[in-house]
Amino acid sequence: QVLQLTTKMAMLNSSRTLARSLGASQRVIQTRALNLHEYQSKGLMQEYDIRVQKFKAADNADDALRFAKELDVPEIVLKAQVHAGGRGKGTFSSGLKSGVHLIPAADIANVGTLTADMIGYNLVTKQTPADGVLVNKVMVAEALDIARETYFAILMDRDSDGPVMVGSPEGGVDIEEVAESSPELIFKEPVDIVAGVQDDQLDRMATNLGFTGDKHTQAMHEMKQLYELFMGVDATQVEINPFAETPDGRVLCFDAKINFDDNAAFRQKAIFAERDTAEEDPREVEASKYDLNYIGMDGNIACLVNGAGLAMATMDIIKHHGGEPANFLDCGGGVTEERVAKAFQLLTSDTQVEAILVNIFGGIVNCATVASGIVNACKEVGLSLPLVVRLEGTNVDGGKKILADSGLPIIAADNLDQAAQRAVEAAANVRA
């Protein structure tokens, strides 16, 4: 691959990677725009009678200590709530080491002290920017020992024409590695989305995961409720790793990743209202308000494209000709002049941009609509950067005429290769 995307792009594609490694159809898993904190996911699971450890979320040291006392458990686990992995090995700008701490009941006063060194400070992990991300909340939870770990997930899979349950007796580890090294330890149960999950399917899965006796019954109940959650919140993926049993015989969901179908946001308003944008790029947050898929990068050539595949190809061609893409911006098929104008505002707000490349293939979208949007956007933002435009498809001649008659210094291109070359050259001239 000539293009290396940011950590954010890797996160968006994580569910596709999981589906592919487990043999499910990667085409059906949606990218995740909504990212819930651990305490939010656990709260959602509680609403569906799914057993999780006792917990509370706090945004100050006093509440954290009070909650820890109210939980009345032998040991507390205190976790910084950020959208990044590697918390346990992270470092705070306060000097505190680790975003995950175990505190015995005898030392419960340390909960307040540790929280004071977490909230309001940046946590740096292997998955955060160099200066870390600001911690606004911590999760105060019951610390539990694990006797055995398994893996359980539910994915929406086109090849199965609906949901598929996926499980493995090897949990608590990277499931992709298990799928590659020991595929015989991956078990799948396609579910009829009309009939719903059946008891015999739950029984087989619990058996395959190694649950016995009363724990077998508990595991069946938890998996059934996880399916109810999956359907109830319009999820595209619910992943529990580990799905585990404790030494005293309880079966719990210790960690969860829940992906939501963005198309269902209109009927899952309460869940989508939980979105925490504090850790997100403000440009990405603004773009999402206009149904634009935007991811900022480190290059100097801004891209405005319709379709994720075409956007990736455009960035690859820019790299091929010696340039560096400044962003991933897919305006989708339902392009309007307003969305084009907002896209230009986002692109020009990036001070590292030296040229803009618009690459539109009009299948659903009308090239004339895009062209009008480009002209109006250029006038609205007072564009001074070089602009290269390649239009093809529906009403392309009408679109090209609008651009030609605009009187703007737009650099036209007949194909993608030519467009990329001209954008790279234009950016070089700006630097000269």
In a nutshell, what does this entry contain?
With 432 residues, the protein is an alpha+beta fold. Helices cover 36% and strands 23% of the residues.
Globular, elongated, flat, extended or rod-shaped: what is the shape?
A: globular
- Helical fraction equals 25-40%
Write down the overall mean pLDDT. 88
- Structural category is alpha+beta
Residue stretches low in confidence (pLDDT < 50, at least 5 long) are 1-17, 25-32
Tell how many strands the DSSP assignment holds: 19
**Cα gyration radius (Å):** 25 Å
For the biggest sheet, the summary is: 6 strands, antiparallel
Question: What percentage of amino acids are in beta strands?
Answer: 15-25%
Q: Cα distance, first to last residue?
A: 30 Å
Secondary structure tally, helices = 15
Blueprint of the fold:
Blueprint: H1 7-12, H2 14-21, H3 38-47, E1 55-58, H4 61-71, E2 75-80, E3 91-92, E4 100-104, H5 110-116, E5 122-124, E6 133-134, E7 138-142, E8 148-157, E9 162-168, H6 175-181, E10 187-190, H7 199-208, H8 213-232, E11 235-245, E12 251-253, E13 256-260, H9 269-272, H10 282-288, E14 293-296, E15 301-305, H11 308-320, E16 327-330, H12 337-348, E17 355-362, H13 367-381, E18 387-393, H14 396-404, E19 410-412, H15 416-431
Parallel strand pairs: 15-17, 17-18, 18-19
Antiparallel strand pairs: 1-7, 2-4, 2-7, 3-5, 5-6, 8-9, 8-11, 9-10, 11-12, 11-13, 14-16
Helix pairs in contact: 4-5, 7-8, 12-13, 13-14
